[in-house]
Write a structure and sequence with these properties.
By secondary structure, the protein is mostly beta strands. It contains no helices and 11 strands.
Length: about 120
Amino acid sequence: QVQLVESGGGLVQSGGSLRLSCAASGSFILINDMGWYRQAPGKQRESVASISRGGDTIYIDSVKARFTISRDNAKNVAYLEMNSLKPEDAGVYYCYSNVRTYLNVVRAFWGQGTQVTVSS
């Protein structure tokens, strides 16, 4: 089984910064893509950023140039550095990992979610 543990959310003023972490543990062959989705009240969950095992990144347009996703493959950890935060960035952020398990299938696993609140 695979567990993802998130940390780093909280309350920040508009223009501030937060850094989210997502640590994977358990038994698996390797982790492919990692990333974050977010969900604001009354809105659909949306993909914010993702990073491949090789370091290729994808961002939703609204966070480009403000958020940076990175990962440490040796530690099985991903990070989301969020700068110049805006009230519209608020929501629950969920990390995910596409993991190749010992059954040789790729499955998505999710973190517990962490709340990001941005005050104006």
